[in-house]
Amino acid sequence: LSYGLAEDNRTAVDKWQADGIVLSDEANTNINMSMIPIKSKDQVEAKEKAVLGQTAGVIQLDKKGSEKINVSFFGINKNEFLMPNIVEGKAFTNENEAVVDKSLNKENGIQLGDTIKLASNDKKIKVVGFTDNAKFNVSPVLLKAIEFLTVDKQFLDGDTTIEALKPTNVSVEKGQFVAVIGPSGSGKSTFLTLAGGLQTPTNGEVKINDEAFSQENEKQRSKIRFAEIGFILQASNLVPFLTVEKQLYLVDKVQKAKADVDKVNELLTQLGIEHLKKKYPDEISGGERQRVAIARALYNDPSIILADEPTASLDSDRAFEVVKILAKETKEKNKATIMVTHDQRLIDYCDEVFIMKDGVLEKQTS
């Protein structure tokens, strides 16, 4: 139940556990399907037409199949059937509720030895085998990584109310690279700081990964921000007395976590700066410093990247290089990226472009 196949030209990945699976209206109503990771391009004919309320699948819990949990359809969207999510800590609403153990929520899919927890009796059973007849045409339910619900931001300037951002409804999905362009003072930075929880809306609500964000207290917003959001600013903002690799280790220090040397090396290699890891910021170029800033922003593996004029101080070649890196990270790791920029040459790498003018955000149509 935890995997989907992208049918909209986005990269199919295995980290859509929270998205659920949408079965076509040709779906088999009696398939043993939830122990099988649906990998990209897996498509097999469905056999029977599913009906709302009927059993949609069976979780097989042991070799003999003697213990099973029936899973029922609970909703229809555009003539498609939406399967309940299996998400850590969240249960189905049918009689035999099931909650996955954290060990299932991982990149490599469900493995032998993983466990299923039954909410009805707190029993955990290991996965000991897979069925092989549960492949079918699927399409993903795309999570809204960031959603603005009638959000505005107002400031007082003496007796005058300044509308920095007028009421805005917009969402950015996982796997989407979005640009926001517009003149200085138009509200771009206000929009980005609201998305990142650095400010709170005057009215409306900002949600992150379909969960409350802007309405949380500052402590909770900070926790979510640190776990889910990577910021890349116009200036690289590197610590001048730390080497390149220690810029990333600083993230671990803040979290009071053990330094992940392998992860640091992998990320620096991916960005083409592994050979610079012992260098200080003043010993490398502007483009290299910006790649270090990107590495630092990605080190926590955030689901969202917010980039504020990340190429402003770079020449054309370096600017394109940085944007290509962001686009690659967005697609390959199914992240959501918002890039504020004044440089319209860079928007060719983006899925959507929004124009900000006088606090009004509008989607560019051509």
From TrEMBL:
Belongs to the ABC transporter superfamily. HrtA family. Residues 146-366 form the ABC transporter domain. PANTHER family: HEMIN IMPORT ATP-BINDING PROTEIN HRTA-RELATED (PTHR24220:SF666), IMPORT ATP-BINDING PROTEIN (PTHR24220). SMART domains: AAA. Part of the ABC transporter complex hrt involved in hemin import. Responsible for energy coupling to the transport system. Its main location: membrane. The complex is composed of two ATP-binding proteins (HrtA), two transmembrane proteins (HrtB) and a solute-binding protein. InterPro entries: AAA+_ATPase, ABC_transporter-like_ATP-bd, ABC_transporter-like_CS, ABC_transpr_LolD-like, MacB-like_ATP-bd, P-loop_NTPase. Keywords: ATP-binding, Cell membrane, Membrane, Nucleotide-binding, Transport. It is found in: Cell membrane. GO terms for molecular function: ATP binding; ATP hydrolysis activity; transmembrane transporter activity. It is a peripheral membrane protein. One of its GO terms (cellular component) is plasma membrane. This is Putative hemin import ATP-binding protein HrtA. It comes from Spodoptera exigua.
